Amino acid sequence: MRVRNSKYIFFVLVLMLLASCGTVQRMTKGDMEEEDFIIGKLYEDELVKEQPYVPKVERGKKPRTAYEEASDKGKNKKLYAVIKPWMGVPYKYGGTTKQGIDCSGFVGNIYREAYGITLHRTANDMQQDVKKVSKSQLREGDLVFFVNSHGKVSHVGIYLHDGLFVHSSTSRGVIISPLSDSYWSQHFHCGGRHPKAR
């Protein structure tokens, strides 16, 4: 009889544990930033179409990377120096290190290192830290926000110049992309400027 009771109690405990895991998972999903939760669904267009910026090769000259071209034309040399070691770092949900980083983690690190500014952790909340600006008003160092198919701000990057921005892409990690890319132009929400980011 004790063996049966023990098995029954064990069975009930296992069921309770499994049920609680489901609850934790549902809570975690609700708390997670939507930009990162379901990779492949949120950015399914990006995963298929999003391409990094590739500079045109001038005849007789050595090909240049997107970073080299952007930093040569950029005015804020400290900003580009801070960005350089992050180029190519893979995307990782919740990541904040060079082993893997998500979009808001990347932007947060760059702003801390380049400007000494601490931003909110998620792309959506970062809007609270900046003054909204239109695409035509973007300046070097401004944030650029993008919405997903549900209209929620779900991605953030840093504007450079000439229609280029740097960000941590779910498909390619930290890259430079053109705002004119079909995915980003369709999903662009707004720019954001922090008064101390100069």
Q: Estimate the mean pLDDT confidence.
A: 80
User: How many separate domains?
Assistant: 2
**Structural class category:** alpha+beta
Largest sheet: 6 strands, antiparallel
**3D shape:** globular
Radius of gyration: 21 Å
Low-confidence stretches: 17-49
CATH topology of the largest domain: endopeptidase fold (from Nostoc punctiforme)
The fraction of residues in strands falls at: 15-25%
Q: What is the topology, as strand order, of the major beta sheet? A: 3-8-4-5-6-7
- The CATH architecture category of the largest domain equals Alpha-Beta Complex
The helix content is: 25-40%
Order of helices and strands: HHHHHEEHHEEEEEHE
CATH class of the largest domain: Alpha Beta
- Record field, number of beta strands: 8
| The named CATH superfamily of the largest domain | endopeptidase domain like (from Nostoc punctiforme)
- CA distance, first residue to last residue: 75 Å
Written account of the structure:
With 198 residues, the protein is α+β, with helices and mostly antiparallel strands. It folds into 2 domains: 1-31; 36-193, endopeptidase fold (from Nostoc punctiforme). 39% of the residues lie in helices and 19% in strands. The protein contains 8 helices and 8 strands. Strands 3-8-4-5-6-7 form a 6-stranded antiparallel β-sheet. Strands 1-2 form a two-stranded antiparallel sheet. α5 packs across α6. The termini are far apart. Residues 17-49 have low confidence and may be disordered.
